[in-house]
Prior knowledge:
Elements: H1 5-28, E1 36-39, E2 42-44, H2 46-62, E3 67-70, E4 82-90, H3 92-97, E5 103-110, E6 113-121, E7 126-131, E8 136-138, E9 141-142, E10 155-158, H4 168-181, E11 184-186, H5 191-199, E12 205-209, H6 213-225, E13 229-231, E14 244-248, H7 253-264
Parallel strand pairs: 3-4, 10-11, 10-12
Antiparallel strand pairs: 1-2, 4-5, 5-6, 6-7, 7-8, 8-9, 12-14, 13-14
Helix pairs in contact: 1-2, 4-7, 5-6
Amino acid sequence: MKVNYQNLTLTTCEIARKAGNFIAKECQNFDASKIENKGLHDLVSYVDKESEKQIITALQNLLPESGFIAEEGTNTTKGERFNWIIDPLDGTTNFIQGVPIYAVSIGLLDGNELVLGVIYEIGRDECFYAWKDGGAFLNGNSIHVSVRNDIHDSLLATGFPYSNFSRIDEYLDFLKWTMTTARGVRRLGSAATDLAYVACGRFDAFWEYDLKPWDVAAGAVIVKEAGGTVTDYCGGNNFLFGSEIIAANGLIDKLILDKIAKFTNN
């Protein structure tokens, strides 16, 4: 079956926006008593779950034969060819605390290949999206990664470990290098937003470990289609299920890979 990825992506943008509107409305009168703990510092709310249900229902109607890899596990159907990878609310802690940086993230696997990604950053009403060989866009306008090639002029982003501290020493060693070398380092609390910001040139690179597929699937497509690179810490392609990622503008990625290898003994 031949699929028009462009049409599929644009419809997915509408689905992400609708879920984002629901999240934004719930933020106004959020019921903190309904917060649950999935693990150490790993929170989920009724908003995450309801957003995921809405997204999955819409995507089932869009591509009936597809399966789902979704953070809250409201549907675990495995598709033979197509599988959606969904984070219904990336940045849950920000949402719960009232910090306005959180996003809906939806990616699609066609076989083993990521073919489209949509990230709707709710606070700024920004929809980032891309499809295979189609380029990357923000609210209808074409975007591209930055052209900064000097690490000293670069703004980097990361995510702090919050439950898996097994690699914290090497992480802090690398963080020290970035803090003393780059223009600055930011931690937004939403990996999807970080990746979207690499794609449009606001950040020059992003790295993090202990991430899940739903954190990175959509963003990886968007960064690549915007001209950037996405790898694991060894420079390979095991970033989707390998729990580590480096996304960069294609100009400083080699330096970051070399340095992160030094500190992680890769």
